[in-house]
Design brief:
Helix content: 25-40%
Oligomer: single chain
Number of domains: 1
Number of helices: 5
Order of helices and strands: HEHHEHEEEEEEH
Radius of gyration: 16 Å
Strand content: 15-25%
């Protein structure tokens, strides 16, 4: 994949759950997993920081994690999967309505980007198959073997996760990159759990800022 393609993929312009106030706005079934439950307090705080939402502002975390999983499986089994055919996973919203401030989405990719082909201000990090972070965007590629694919026969797929903020952040560039990676990592772990990926799709058990690719 060329530098221009990778950069355009990152620069193309959602996820859902809730703080305690917003948890009362929906009553999911026992089998439904909500973004408010999936995302940790650290990930929620990171979403607010990269979107420059004050900590005191009520924020909802809304989305359909299970729907994203079902969509990816359906795409693969129908032969329609594409890196550009995203499934919305979760997003952060000021209050409980309007446009999302931060969005996380997933798609199935053919291959990770080549090392060294990411333009500034993005940086590459050593996590899973590939990790790329900027101040408003974080992307993580990871490989998942799951029995859910191929109509239950099982298959190995390359998943691309992306978090994107609609707004500028007041954080430093390094802090923002760490936040975007934290969000996309945590969302990817949650997706991996819902997909029943073997060996947690090679994702670490907890988030620590990975080393930069030199």
């Amino acid at each position: 994949m060329t530098s221009s393609v990778i950069t355009s993929a990152l620069m193309v312009a959602g996820c859902q759950g809730e703080d305690s106030k917003s948890d009362d706005t929906a009553t999911p079934s026992a089998a439904e997993v909500t973004c408010g439950e999936i995302l940790s307090a650290q990930a929620k705080a990171a979403m607010k920081r990269i979107a420059n939402i004050p900590a005191s502002v009520s924020t909802s975390y809304l989305g359909d994690p299970q729907g994203a999983v079902d969509g990816l499986v359906a795409q693969y089994d129908a032969g329609t999967a594409s890196e550009w055919n995203d499934e919305d996973f979760c997003g952060a919203y000021k209050g409980s309505a309007g446009l999302d401030s931060v969005r996380v989405r997933f798609s199935l990719a053919e291959e990770p980007p080549e090392k060294g082909n990411v333009a500034s201000p993005f940086k590459e990090y050593r996590m899973a198959k590939a990790a790329i972070a900027g101040v408003k965007v974080g992307v993580l590629y990871f490989e998942c073997f799951s029995d859910k694919f191929s109509s239950g026969a099982g298959a190995t797929v390359l998943v691309r996760g992306e978090v994107r903020s609609r707004y500028e952040t007041s954080e430093s560039a390094d802090a923002a990159r760490e936040d975007t990676l934290r969000i996309v990592y945590e969302s990817s772990r949650a997706l991996s759990d819902l997909l029943d990926c073997k060996s947690n799709a090679g994702l670490p058990a907890s988030f620590t800022m990975p080393p930069e690719v030199q």
